[in-house]
Amino acid sequence: MPAFTDALKRLLVGRPMHSERLTETLLPKRIALPVFASDALSSVAYAPDEIFLTLALAGVAALSSSVWVGIGVVFVMLIVVLSYRQNVHAYPSGGGDYEVATTNLGGKAGITVASALLVDYVLTVAVSVSSGAQYAATALPLLRGHEVVAAVTVVLILMTINLRGVRESGTAFAVPTYLFMVGILGMGAIGITRYVLGDLPLAESAGLTTAPDGPESAMVGMAWGFLLLRAFSSGCAALTGVEAISNGVPAFKVPKSRNAATTLALLGGIAVTMLMSIVGLANLMHVRFAEDPATQLFRDGVPVGEEYVQRPIIGQIAEGVFSGFPPAFYLVTAATGLILVLAANTAFNGFPVLGSILARDDLMPRQLHTRGDRLAFSNGIIVLGGAACALIVAFDAQVTRLIQLYIVGVFISFTLSQIGMVRHWTRLLRLETDPAARRRMHRSRLVNGIGLTITGTVLVIVLITKFLHGAYLALIAMGLMYLLMLAIRRHYRTVEKEIAVAGKSEARALPSRVHAIVLVSKIHRPMLRALAYARATRPSALEAITVDVDAEETERLQAEWDARDIPVSLRVLESPYREITQPIVSYVRSIRRRSPRDLVVVFIPEYVVGHWWEQILHNQSALRLRTRLHYTRGVVVASVPWQLASSEGLEERRDITAPGASRRAVGPVTAADPVEAGTDGTDGTTRAGTEGSS
């Protein structure tokens, strides 16, 4: 079993990489662009859909406003990209918005940003993969009704690929990302050319209308303004993922900051071009799109009904633009479906890095700070994958439901980051005297100030328009994450205070005496080895103890003990209710009460086995005993291993990674392993603890 699981892991993840090869995992710009930009680029695939869904509530005439909404989104995108180019130069360590906010606004602001980003990363995976699953279901009828299973499966595949390393995942996903760019940009160029030549066909849904037929009922006063703001906030989903580059600067090749800033500029230029191409062509081709097409789309005044299959906007545009050349249509639709899935890869690169930084600052479990076999932050990748799967199942892989939670977190981090950058430049200006440097700082502060104004405004719009539609759930999740991080930091600091050495006198403090105890259930070789090791430590006092759960067996044990003339006294502990743990714990505590400065060492013979099923047959009561002893002050539990034949050869294995490997005692046995006393070595009958766990 260990060999199989180890081979499976090596097949899926690959062989471990030496720490010295960390520089080999750094990304050039051509790989970094698809790795960190896939989220923002994929937003282009569904942000237009969300704009049209909202505007469709006001009727067909309102759809023409999508161009102005798109221009508003593009303006925000360009401002945010310019602002983040300042961030990557000023804070290249990879902390991104969290580091900016913590350094300039304080710890609480930093934790707020971190909680927003962590929630946003999880939502990025859930939204992207769910969107890809729904997109695939429109093309493959067999997937309809099974979107949740498909989405969870894709998340697990992405998680596995990312466990192989950042560079490997980036290389694997580069081709689909570039195909998507070429496909959408090419579709836009050909579509505009055909429009200029008067040859652009209408979309398949051009003959439909939306309810209400005409904007009169909605396009009045505040109602129309609110609808436009809601469409704008939905379109701002295109900005998600921009912050990932600032969080991933350490993954770039040197010069890191310059390469990251260049990648940001490429991302911004490509994304806005693609977005406006889609929105523009959707208007020119009279695309009709609704949240519930069966009841909200009409043909000749009659609802189209359930038999109507509504294609995504990109699919409708591609079908018209590439009419007469189906291969191009299939290329665009396939690349779009892939990019929607691969967008999650941005989160799989951003979440683990941020989690590592938070773990370094004692705000997340310290396991997240550790790199795995492939030099990726494996624990963070697994946590993200599990959380995304849970969210997909909870929301039934419905993009429309998930998208309402989506962009709140990212705009909270945008806004706080821009406030932090404004304070950053203000602080530096107080110290800088060089006129040229001051002019550069003034320009940078102006850019970040504009970014603050824009992102803050969008945040307010998002909160107003999406709060009741699900944004409040995202805020609750961020609040819970904030409290969780505070609790984790409080725990780590409490532990550090408890275990800190007060001074030299405490460091030199030794127990007055050492009282050694060897647990015995019967006389056999593991017990004799434990007894020999206990004697070799030269304790102040040494005794063997057994628990009397069967009078006849206890008499036979005592007689054999005396017959073998073992030079250690055997103490029998009474147990009228045939319980093992409590008599031993009570006896150990009585020693501590009599001599509080004494150290009590309990030696437990341990069986080391090679098969998982052997573990089930031994030491079931021992775990309880050891746990109780661990909670007793002044007590040390020492495990004395005895390797059974089934464990031969396992020590030669370089890496045992199967679940429970540490419990099978493969490799060094530590005090943290569940090596317990309390099972008879032949038939599993519990006595007084002469073997440990495997």
Secondary-structure blueprint:
Elements: H1 2-13, H2 29-55, H3 66-90, H4 96-105, H5 107-139, H6 147-163, H7 166-196, E1 209-210, H8 221-235, H9 243-247, H10 256-284, H11 293-296, E2 297-299, E3 302-303, H12 313-321, H13 326-342, H14 344-360, H15 378-394, H16 399-431, H17 435-499, H18 504-507, E4 514-519, H19 525-536, E5 541-548, H20 551-563, E6 570-574, H21 581-594, E7 599-608, H22 612-617, H23 622-630, E8 635-643
Parallel strand pairs: 4-5, 4-7, 5-6, 7-8
Antiparallel strand pairs: 1-2, 2-3
Summary?
With 694 residues, this protein is of the alpha/beta class. It has 23 helices and eight strands.
Major β-sheet strand ordering: 6-5-4-7-8
CATH class of the largest domain: Mainly Alpha
Radius of gyration: 33 Å
What is the domain tally?
2
- Give the integer mean of the pLDDT values: 79
Give the number of helices: 23
Which range does the strand content fall in?
A: 5-15%
CATH topology of the largest domain: Amino acid/polyamine transporter I
Shape: elongated
The CATH H-level superfamily of the largest domain is Amino acid/polyamine transporter I
